[in-house]
Design goal:
two-stranded antiparallel sheet, D-Maltodextrin-Binding Protein, domain 2, Arc Repressor Mutant, subunit A, alpha/beta, 10 helices, elongated, about 300 residues
Length: about 300
């Protein structure tokens, strides 16, 4: 494969965005023949067919969709670079972080905040780009494609070594049962036995925390009224704030941020959320990210 010609790539990108060569010609003020020829050269250089003719229009092939994904990133960064130069900004490195959505956003903030704090004392500042997703496997797939620098997970990755990744424990967060003042006052006497029949909001059954919670209740022969199951921590929190049920909340004790409108009923002894950083050890990392990973678990 030849060295990528970014002029050819730009023509391809505009054609894909505009939906056809004629529209791209009007957008760029260049003849359709010129654009068609440049896209053909890009296909020759890459050895891939990027468009197929469908009726009177063009449709991206699988290779074309892959090319478009990377072209979006390239030209987005190019626009950022141009703006940074115009404003005279200092260098601000992008750190792309994937976050499992059962991690409470306040906890994710606490875990990632040191990245920004460290950057303030270094020569290179950091710009965090965070994506939240419920599927760890999807986040890991993007990590292996170098679309992420780090994935923040609520469970370890068993096959990390096979994927040439590292999974490093970051912190262990004890679980507190929290709710509105009305619910806390109703169930605080004789806790935790009082939870028998109490309205509870829980994570989905396929989560690491849910397995621990089920075992905790079973060991104490406590049978709460499970009002709802959630794959998103913020949605569960919204239901808890509405007084619909009590929620288990992982609390990073040394950096605890009070939950708005929620009080703590009690701790679920022996139950904890375990947060992990998953990353590629082969990728050159920003110093701020290295400091985060060097911190003791």
């Amino acid at each position: 494969m030849h060295t990528l010609n970014y002029k050819h790539l730009h023509y391809f990108w505009v054609v894909a965005k505009e939906g056809g060569i004629s529209a791209a010609s009007r957008k760029l003020g260049i003849t359709a023949q010129t654009i068609s020829g440049q896209v053909s050269l890009l296909e020759q250089d890459t050895g891939q067919t990027l468009f197929t003719q469908v009726g009177r229009g063009l449709q991206l092939t699988e290779a074309g969709r892959t090319m478009l994904h990377y072209a979006d990133q390239i030209f987005m960064l190019g626009n950022e670079l141009q703006l940074a130069m115009e404003r005279g900004d200092s260098l601000r490195a992008r750190l792309n972080i994937g976050i499992v959505d059962m991690i409470p956003k306040s906890n994710a903030t606490q875990l990632l905040a040191p990245l920004l704090q460290t950057s303030q004392t270094s020569q290179t500042a950091v710009k965090l780009v965070c994506q939240v997703d419920g599927e760890l496997n999807e986040l890991i797939a993007k990590l292996t494609l170098h679309q992420f620098d780090l994935v923040l997970a609520d469970r370890p990755l068993p096959n990390a070594e096979a994927l040439q990744l590292r999974c490093q424990p970051l912190v262990q967060a004890p679980i507190m049962l929290q709710g509105t003042r009305e619910l806390v006052e109703r169930y605080q006497a004789d806790f935790p036995a009082s939870l028998n029949g109490a309205p509870i909001l829980l994570p989905m059954r396929n989560t690491a925390l849910r397995l621990q919670l089920d075992a905790w209740f079973a060991a104490r022969q406590i049978y709460p009224d499970i009002i709802g199951e959630f794959s998103d921590s913020e949605l569960m929190h919204a239901f808890a704030r509405a007084g619909i049920g009590l929620q288990p909340t992982p609390v990073i004790a040394s950096k605890a941020i009070p939950a708005d409108d929620l009080l703590t009923l009690g701790a679920l002894s022996g139950v904890a959320a375990h947060y992990h950083a998953i990353f590629s050890p082969k990728k050159i990392m920003h110093p701020a990210l290295e400091n985060l990973l060097r911190a003791p678990a």
